[in-house]
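Journal club prep, notes for RB
We'll compare a predicted complex against what the paper describes. Inputs for the protoporphyrin IX containing FE case:
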Amino acid sequence: MTTTTDGTCPFSTIGGEFNPFVDPYLSDPYEFLARARREEPVFYSPEIDYWVITRYEDIQSVFRNTQNFSATIALEPLTPLWPSSIEKVIEVGYVPGPVLVNEDEPLHRARRKRIGDAFAPKRIRELEPRIREIVTEYLDRFVQRGHADLVDDFVWEIPALVIFMFMGVPDDEAGQVKQFAARRTLFTWGRPTEEEQNQLVDEVGTYWNFCKQHVARLQENLGDDFMSDVIRAHQEDPDLIDETYLYNTMLNFLFAGHETTTNASGNGFRTLLENREAWDAICKDPSLIPNAVEEILRYSSSVIAWRRRATATTTVGGVEIPEGANVLLATGSANHDENVFTDSETFDIHRDNANRHLAFGFGNHNCMGSPLARLEMKVILEELTRRLPHIRLAEGQTFEYSANTSFRGPDHVLVEWDAGHNPVPADRT
Ligand code: HEM
């Protein structure tokens, strides 16, 4: 447990009440976070041994201060590994090395520049027709059914298929990788018991081997995809991008590329359908969709917290964060900060500064995949509103969320409609 620099215990009421793994926070973190912003915007949480920062300005200052706040903690298991799990990590051969998101300058900048070249806007734009085809295929499967789970039936696999195409991985592995990813969320950001953690390490080991195999396959036959470009960069400059970096890039891009976007879409469906006038407005005028996507990312972010570690004692929001302390940046809270967003607890797809949200982080490490995520969410909403504008949330459902600090999206979103009234004649029963 941490102490302040004068040796006193930093325990407080708000800090004592913070438990991100259980209700009420799990089903609705925003009420608690609004109170924290008002009463104690920077607090210490004994539950997770992190300093939690909740105001927009303070969070932005930490993201900016790459000197005093290191990103190396970003993928460390939040629940420290039990000795038996460490043995297992060695046994399964998993080598958790750096990737962009958890490395510091100057190496991060050099690698991001090299890898970022492979992430050109043109390559992202060219994916749009294929994304639309995938979305259409999934909609075709249930459009006449009159009811669906918009997570399981629709956006569970779509972002995985898109990132596969981007990374050069065959489509038929999507279901398996989705399972790996869900387990990896619990391993890195959850609160597993020793037994659960042991089991999770086994599964991460399988995922690791899966990624190694795909890198090896691409190495033998390079293609026109992002991962092949990273392999080319490795061949040209193996000191900058070594073999382990390739495997970790495969593992982490596959993860970053879909879990976040599935959750963001699920949050979008729930929020839009609970705010019917917003849903009806985008059905009537699809040109409103891009700003609606920004407002979804702000109002109900799929990443609600990100991490840094203090490398020097630093004052944030008037509170001294000791050197070596773990820091949880509650970006979901920043996105509801009333000092930046007027009527911040209101969902407003016409909001003119919605895109100031921190859902994609901020500064040197800001999300490299954000143009792809935005494009996917836009196409998903365009096609859904065009073919099923009359869907409504099934009554009586409760929304459930995975117990972890950072990744947030409903497990299921159940909807119903009268398929006889589908607007596209070919879609009618
Ligand atoms: C709605 C979807 C997404 C959300 C909410 C999201 C969120 C984030 C966040 C919070 C960070 C950390 C930023 C920081 O430390 O300042 C990040 C980094 C990153 N994301 Fe995303 N992400 C999404 C989709 C994607 C996709 C589709 C990809 C890949 C194609 C991707 C690839 C990355 C990469 C490579 C980084 C590390 C960048 C760096 O450290 O330089 N993300 N993302």
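Talking point for the session: Residues 243-274 form the longest helix (32 residues).
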